[in-house]
Design a protein that fits this description.
By secondary structure, this protein is α/β, with parallel strands linked by helices. 49% of the residues lie in helices and 13% in strands.
Length: 283
């Protein structure tokens, strides 16, 4: 009798929880998972396609990934050729009428960096982009698809925007005091952040799958010895052997950046951890 009563209560709780879930959202990369988690909380099921630590530039979708994409009431992607091998599937789904939201579409073209026909895709690394363009774009789509929870999503979005603005102010103060204003990174994932906060960034790898030449490595070493670069950073998920050679030749210690937030529980924590690492090695 006691078992049946317990089972009945458990089923009621599960039914109540399930009834709160209004939709399924599929996100391609972890930073957008962290943002959506703050915005929808228990009102939607969020599926992360590319797990933290896996390279979105090189990731090839599995059959299970395609099935998960088909489950989405909303698919949130970065665009700008970040999800190179998933793009064909996303294009097919969009033609079939599924809701695919490319967040890079909401960044003004004049504010993008990189080559004109191939802009740098790491737009989530600029907190101002997030609170000015990306969070509002997500909010608008959530309200369109799930109007009954509009007020809930709006409250959470406003809260997130305020916290991002607070971090932006805090980050400006900290970066102004940082002694090192010219850094080397393994991969050009920090360019938007660096531009926003007054840092010059040189990237060791310009693209994925490309090896750094001996000449390029020696040029970087010479720049460091001349004092043109004063801190170096590898990146989670990126081969760091070339960076280790540079560190050995110059005596600089290697910091580690985490633009995908592999160890972050929220988007603010992603920024805070990277800022802490920059200050730790850049003074």
């Amino acid at each position: 009798m006691m078992f049946r009563k317990t089972l009945y209560i458990f089923l009621l709780i599960m039914l109540s929880y399930t009834s709160l879930i209004s939709m399924t959202i599929v996100v391609t990369i972890n930073p957008y998972y962290l943002i959506l988690k703050d915005m929808v909380k228990d009102r939607a099921r969020i599926l992360l396609l590319i797990e933290p630590g896996k390279n979105p530039h090189l990731y090839s979708p599995t059959i299970e990934d395609v099935k998960n994409l088909m489950k989405g009431d909303l698919i949130v992607a970065n665009g700008l050729n970040l999800e190179t091998f998933i793009s064909p599937e996303l294009s097919k789904l969009k033609k079939k009428g599924l809701n695919v939201l490319y967040l890079s579409d909401f960044i003004p073209r004049g504010e993008l960096m990189g080559e004109k026909d191939r802009p740098n895709p790491h737009i989530w690394m600029d907190p101002v982009f997030l609170y000015r363009y990306i969070v509002p774009a997500i909010l608008k789509e959530l309200k369109r698809i799930d109007p009954k929870n509009s007020d809930f999503y709006e409250r959470n979005a406003i809260d997130l925007i305020e916290r991002l603005k607070k971090f932006d102010r805090f980050c400006r103060e900290k970066m102004e005091k940082m002694k090192c204003k010219s850094i080397l990174t393994a991969h050009p994932s920090l360019v938007y952040f660096a531009r926003r906060y007054g840092i010059k960034v040189t990237s060791l790898f310009s693209g994925h799958g490309k090896q750094v030449t001996v000449k390029e490595t020696m040029n970087v070493i010479r720049s460091i010895r001349k004092g043109e670069i004063c801190a170096i950073f590898s990146e989670k998920g990126i081969n760091s052997k070339a960076m280790e050679v540079i560190a050995s030749e110059t005596g600089l210690e290697i910091g580690t950046l985490d633009p995908l937030g592999c160890e972050a529980n929220g988007i603010l924590e992603l920024f805070e951890k990277n800022l802490k690492e920059l200050i730790r090695f850049g003074g």
